[in-house]
Amino acid sequence: VNERIDRYDLAAELERDGVIAANAPLLPPPAEGRPWFVSALQGIAGWLAGLFGLGFIAVFFKLSDTGSFAIFGVFLLAVAFGLYRATRNSAFMGQLALAASIAGQVALTFSFAQAAKYTVAVPAACVAVMQCVLVFVMPNRLARTLAAFFACVAWALTLRFAWWGDKESWDILRKTVSLVPALIGWATVWIPVAAVCAIAILNEARWMAQPVAARIIRPVLTGLLLALTFGTFASEPLEALEWFRSTGSTPENWLVLWPLLNALLALGAAFGAFCLRNKALLGVAIAAALLHVGQFYFLLGTTLVVKSIIMLAVGAVLVVAGISLRHKP
Amino acid sequence: MNRTELDGLVAHYRLSPPQVERALALAGARPTPPETTQFVIRALLLAGVLSLAAGVVFFIAANWHELRVIGRFVLVEALIALSVGLAFWRPPPRAIGRYALLAAFLMVGALLALFGQTYQTGANVYELFLTWTMLGLPFVIAGQWSSLWAAWILVLNLALGLFCGLRPETGLLWALFDSAWGAPHLLLIATLANLALWAVAEFLHARAIRTKGFAPFAAKSLRRLVLASAIFFATWGGAMAIFGFGLYPANPGSALLVFAALIAISVYAWLRRADVFPLALTAASLILLVMFVIIESGNSGEAGFLVVAFMVTVWLILSSSVTARVILHLARSWDAAEEDL
Predict the structure, then answer these.
(1) A208, A212, A257: which to substitute to probe chain B, counting the most B Cβ within 10 Å?
(2) B185 Cβ contact partners less than 8 Å away, ≥ 6 residues apart
(3) What is the average per-residue pLDDT within B196-209?
(4) Residue A124's pLDDT band (boundaries 50, 70, 90)?
(5) Residue among A10, A32, A60 minimizing CB distance to B27
């Protein structure tokens, strides 16, 4: 975004162009925009506060069964909704609402996990649905961004555990997973998310023209792009730690390609951030891409020589593509 | 003008989609086709060079027996020579020269890793990163590129983290210290090293503004990166001083030193009135450290947990909301003052 032009200059330019009428009402004072690091600080603090708050409630009210966690979860989410609605411009109430919302979500997640007993896919699917509902219900930007992010994470976990099972989770890299299922599994989770982002960016002007849609789509787009950077780590939550207990040889397992595909996805998110002129998100995407390559190094499933050949081939393709694009008239 | 303001303006004037397109174009909110092409070319080349370098590092780490030791050394050294040759052929600030020097810098790390792997020198890992930092510095300076400096800063901080945080008590650098130096104090040294880099970057930035010149090390993102590294080490040291670690019990004196360092950074940033980022970082660190103090000072048992959980919740909500309010207020007033000038 052109940082030199402010909203009043832009309004004047639009008036000169005849886009807005000369007697159009004056712009009200700007809404309180906040730098990314302030949002990050508030988000992390709100998350921690929610976890400690839930810890306090769980011990104080001696919550243990599915029903009590579910009741408190719904109650806390209702409190968060009420606080967001009632106090739109209070930083303190906003943080209180965020903490209540996080505590409510974690409490409901506990209740889903307890109800489903020894499976991860079902509670993960329930969490994904809950987050999708929160995206539309919670009247707050940060809450919507977080909900969109965690919806993607929960969706990735759902498919991962539904396909490859719970009992084998820790040993999935000790089993053979061929290339095609590995690629289909990854694409099923992440290509729809990437496609939604691309569609939203391409149609930005259309939904910006509908303020109600813009209030939802703008934070959701940020959350989805964030999911394409760091949410992708949820695709292989347990295998990432497998190298800690690596002993002996492991069979060929093409899930090992996922971090590399995630790195490419992070580069795609970087392009999305560039299109939206979002420098902070661009930096996050680059950092995530580098971390995914680091994870690719550690994951078991194939030899380092094969990984090396893959990296060299990918590097050569990227460099040749870059050079040929550069010399294109 | 950011996207939030644009959304507000569009909603206020009830613009139609074509009118929104016009507003986006006037605000420069969308990259132009040449900008997009340039971004894609840069991203492809940077990702490509990094992938190739990672491929070489993976290959060295694989310790492939089909290739003899001499072959491995020749391979890595040839790549360094090729990269330097390319940089001489098309010197920076040309893109080829920069990418070639980035590759050369990364290959220096691969060469050191290969040397350690082959001859089992017994050197600690931090020594590899520290030597890499020193040997790679000429390439970084010659590169005149902030991305190359970012890579150098990351390698330097890895070395500092491994030495100061893990305290290996071995190697050349340890000769400057003794066993009385606990991890919190060593981490303060890492903090000071990054603060010194921050000061250099700020000085170069001020000089670049004065002379209308260019200082790749003084890019805003790099200044923020070194400061974030400094605060990270301070927070790490503070956490160790509060909780105690291994042979070293909790040390309130060291914790106070960390608090003093963080407050000093905040006061300096407040007086400079240039950027609210340092204030946000130090505030985040202080919020976290005070939370650790509350947790550490709590009693055991159910009643103790209840008190700690309640106090931490209240502290986090209060401190983060006050911090956000103050920082947003400062950001607005400093921006307004800058516009008045």
Answers:
(1) A208
(2) B237, B254, B257
(3) 90
(4) very high
(5) A10
